[in-house]
Structure formats: structure tokens, C-alpha cells
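Reopening this one. Same input as before:
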Amino acid sequence: MSRLLWSGAFLFASALAALAGDVAVFIGDSGNSRLARNAQAAVESAGFTVFATTSPRPGEIADMLAVAVERAGAGDRMVVYLGGATALAGTRSYHLGQARRGLNAFTVARMGTDIGIILDQMAEHPGRALLLLRTDRAPIVVGPDQRGIGRLLADVPAGVAAVEGSSSALLGNLMRLFDHPGASVSESFAGQRISGYAPEGLAFLDPADRPMAAGPAPGPSEEDIFFDLARTMGTSAAYRAYIDRYPAGKHVAEANRLIRVLRESPERRAQALEDGLGLSREARRDIQRDLNALGFDTRGIDGIFGKGSRTAIQGWQESRGLEKTGFLSGNQIVTLSSQAEARREDQNRR
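Same output, byte for byte:
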């Protein structure tokens, strides 16, 4: 069984063995901290690796989701709970974590996380993906399109179950789902707004899939796993969390060295963050296509970030008023994708 650990804004669990398996992500709602912790404990007891934060900074949500997606295997389950604030900008829905003022169509893409992209990633786990979205507070509407709260989840991809409601109802019913193996999403969340794939009688958690009461399978130590997660996240906060947890640990010297590197070199910090996303070659091709669509020539679309791609990234970052590191964060990738798609849609209209 994994154990929840606190790291700055992040609350995450050390995974077992090879770090692959069922994954759950909890974002927002510090006001329901006790209920959230109980829900996380229920999910954790079913063998899930839990990632959570109550006060994310811009970019942290996308980065954490990227790590979670990397951890989940093709046949594994994925649960994502989105509390906090949401925003509507045209046909797009965004999760903000915290309410923000003065947003426009561009800043909301930079400050928030596109819910559509989250759903697309969850669609890679058909029949085993559950999105919970808090909708008891009206979303921030950016621009003239007053679509209202019902359009936050207007298009749920096949294979994903999505539930909308208050934080207390969502978290409470999530505990009910995990406390009763064999229950379906439609049964456990009866009375909530459910969309997507949630057939009656289809168990989300099969009792036969629950971990055995015996001790954990042989594998890396908890300390090694914790340090691996810190290195994957690539942030100073993650390395400091490791040092706080294991002050005499065998990786302390390396953690301190990496903290110094991040402090002294913005480029190295940006590189560590990008490396932590674990971008596939196809994902890199998509980024190259987006850069070219916006007029930043990558000198080829091959899924390899060479000099041409790094220069194009720097050019795009400069156009956005961002630090010209040549490396992308998860949030920047979301912004780049949104901006490129808007450009393509505009070209198609013309």
C-alpha cells in the first residue's frame, strides 16, 4: 500500500514496484480538506497512486497531470477530480485551480488547463476513466459567449465517465464507489449529472482486482521511489520534499546538487521540467506542427527536438513574453496547442 506524502503544494503517494498502475489526481478544494483526504485514502487503499494539490500555481496542474498520465499503463484506471474554479472561453473549457480576474482568451489558456485535453488523455483508458468536475460554482466566462455551466463538459470522448456536482457530493460518492467494490459509476453517483460512458451494472472496481493483504511485492525501496518521483517532477520543491523525508538518505547529495542547478540555471530548470513530462515522439511531432502553424519554423516534423525546434520554441516563447529557455512546460504546451488550433480554425473560416 502506498502512503500519502506532502511536498509544498503537492500531495502525492509513493508508488509500488515499477511505478505503473492505477492513478488518481485530486486538484483544489482546500475547504473540504478532510473529506478530500478521506476520499484519497479510500482510493489509495485500492492500490491507486495518488497525486493531489490544493493550491496549484500556473503550470503545476498540467505538469502533475503529465506525470500521472505517464504512470498509468494502457489497461490501468484513471480518476481525476477537478475542484476549484473553471472558465469558459468560446468552445473551450478550462480548469483554473483558483479563481482569477482579468482573464481573456489568451491568458485563460496560459493560466488554466484545457479540460478537453484532460479528457482526451483519459480516453486512452476506455471504460476505466472517471472525471469528477465541481460545478456548483458558476464558471468564469471569458468573452461574449455566455454558454453557462452546462457546457463545461459538452463533449465527453468515448470510454470516459464524467460526473458534475458539488465537491462534497463528488468526494462523498467517490468514497462510496471505492468502499463498495463491484459498484458502477451510475449507481454510486446516482442523482449527479453523469455523461459519457457509465453503463448500469458495469463495475468500476472489480473486487478481484483489489490488492492482496500481503506485503508489497519486491521492488525498489520507498526512498528510491520517492526520489524517482522527485526527479521525474524536476522541481526544487520535489527535491526538498525528498530531503525533508529522508534527511540522511542516500540521494541527499544528488538532490542538493539538482536544487543548485535549478536555482542557478533557468535553462536547466526548464529542461528538467520538460524531461519530466516524458513526451513521446508523436507528442513532439504535434508540438512541431503547432509551432509551424504559428509561423515558427522547426526545420522539419520528425519528433526530434534539435536546433531548429529549440530555436522555434524560443521564438514562440519570446512572442508570448515568456522566458526564452527553448524548453516547454506542460502549461506552455497546452497554451501552444490552443493557440495553434485557434489559428487553424481562423484559417479554415477564411
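So the earlier flakiness isn't reproducible anymore. For the record, Residues 1-18, 146-150, 211-218 have pLDDT under 50 and may be disordered.
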